[in-house]
Design brief:
The chain is an alpha/beta fold. It is built from 10 helices and 9 strands. InterPro entries: Asp/Glu/hydantoin_racemase, Asp/Glu_race.
């Protein structure tokens, strides 16, 4: 697992994969203690990762890409048979940062796209960090599965999503779920709410919904929310079984 960006996200991915594993093996009647996958974590420096993000200038991403590539190579050298990045935001450059390793890297876009297909969703509103919502990578990533995806418009709504994420990162959950619902209702006409799923495309966002945060999908105020962390973590556990 490539983690540290940020560390709460890494802890949540680890917890979720282990919880999914224990639930599965318990359902199979496995003897105690219940198995969990062997997981190595390479934890990055959040400050370096954020402050070395590139821009549209040629070569501006080199330092950032190499930092992630080195971490992936360390995990592969340690014997990892598959890799997962425990954060959605870096997936915008998943092709660049995974090109130096030969083991499979589990894409969040693939996991979410196939989940939408399996559950009959063909339209998706994506809520994520401001860097996530500033590129087309997530939208393009799920569009390969026939999903019509979009981010909140106008920019002011994206900024409000970013503010909610900042509060949740500081464990300030009061009023967060209502704020998210308000944003969604401003993005999607009431008559279309039943036809569009809303992807909580940042690990902090599901924290706003309390106990429901352990579910891959849940409903609130007539809105179908998808938890990207649980969906991505489930894909990692499924890969461990094969």
């Amino acid at each position: 697992m490539l983690g540290g960006v940020g560390w709460p996200s890494t802890a949540e991915y680890y917890r979720t994969i282990c919880r999914i594993s224990q639930s599965y093996w318990d359902s199979q009647g496995h003897a105690r203690p219940l198995p969990t996958p062997e997981i190595a974590i390479e934890s990055l420096n959040m400050s370096f990762a954020v402050n070395n993000r590139g821009n549209e200038q040629p070569g501006s991403w080199d330092s950032w890409d190499h930092y992630y590539q080195n971490a992936m190579e360390s995990l592969e050298s340690a014997g990892a048979e598959l890799l997962i990045v425990s954060s959605i935001t870096p997936h915008a450059r998943i092709s660049e940062i995974s090109k130096t390793v030969s083991v499979p890297v589990l894409s969040a876009y693939h996991a979410i796209g196939t989940y939408c297909l399996d559950n009959g969703f063909n339209e998706l509103l994506i809520l994520g960090t401001l860097p996530t919502m500033s590129t087309s990578s997530f939208v393009d990533g799920v569009s390969r599965y026939g999903i019509k995806a979009s981010y909140p418009e106008p920019q002011a709504l994206r900024d409000r999503v970013g503010s909610v994420i900042e509060s949740l990162y500081l464990n300030q959950t009061q009023g967060a779920s209502a704020a998210i619902v308000d944003i969604v209702q401003e993005c999607i006409p009431a008559e279309n709410l039943a036809n569009v799923a809303v992807c909580l495309g940042c690990t902090e966002l599901p924290m706003a919904f309390g106990a429901q945060a352990d579910n891959p999908m849940f409903k609130q105020s007539g809105i179908s929310f998808l938890n990207s962390t649980v969906i991505h973590a489930q894909s990692a556990f499924d890969a461990c079984l094969t």
